[in-house]
Amino acid sequence: MLDLNADQIERLIELASQKSFFDYLSLFLQTLVPLGALLFGYSTLKTHARRITAEKLIEKDIDRLYQSVDHFFEYADKINLFFSLQLTKINKRHQGKPVEESLDAKLTTTSDLVYANIANVRKASFILSSLGKPEIAKKLDNFRDETIQIRKSIFNSLDSLGAYPTTSQIETLIDYISTEKERASKLRDECLFDLSKISNELKKPFQ
User: Fold this and answer.
1) Transmembrane stretches, by residue range (predicted)?
2) Is residue 6 in some structural domain?
């Protein structure tokens, strides 16, 4: 065995307890790897959370858009049926055919439903405005106003016919309703086309 004095033994212990630069570097690198993984995981999780939040907001907007479409179509469907029933009834009178009570009853019910669903167009346009589409909301309001005016004009024309209208009067009214019904259908289709464009815009992030 080597004979070591007390000073030499103390020096050996001191050297054994000291860490070199490379020892510290190795320790640092060992710590850096899990720390980097932790930071990467946090960043990924945060990005994922943001994406999920954005998707939920988009889904909510899509649901609201569908509500708007439903509200609008409730009115558009009823007003179109009203025009069709009026044409059927007036054509029967023009042809000298009896008007069934069921037709009169259905026409009355449909007219009431048209009036009741006017508020739905307001709801639809309000939703569109809140989605940042005021120009399309205005188109829906215009469709509502135009069709309300047509309906009012039909009632006024029917009142002016009297009990024994002439053939010319009936034909004029038939032409008027047919023309306005077609115009209203075009306005409705334009609105529905614009609504479908909004739907495509909202769904784009998912595609």
Assistant:
1) 21-42
2) no
Residue 113, helix vs strand vs coil: helix
Half-sphere exposure of 53 (CA within 13 A, CB side): 6
- Looking at the chain, the number of H-run helices and the number of E-run strands are 6, 0
Range of the domain at 105: 68-206
Q: Which residues of 79-108 are buried (b: 16+ CB within 10 A; e: fewer)?
A: bbbbbebbbebbeeeeeeeeeeeeeeebbe
Write out pLDDT tens, residues 56-75.
777 888 889 899 999 999 99
The CA-based angle 103-177-153, given to 5 degrees, is 95
Residue 137 lies in a domain: yes
CB-CB neighbours of 202 under 10 Å: 17
Query: Is 90 a domain residue?
Result: yes
Determine the residue type at 15: L
Least confident of 45-49, 83-87, 95-99, 173-177: 45-49
Instruction: Tell me if residue 95 falls in helix, strand or coil.
Output: coil
Number of domains in the chain: 1
Orientation angle between helical segments 21-94 and 118-130, nearest 10 degrees: 160
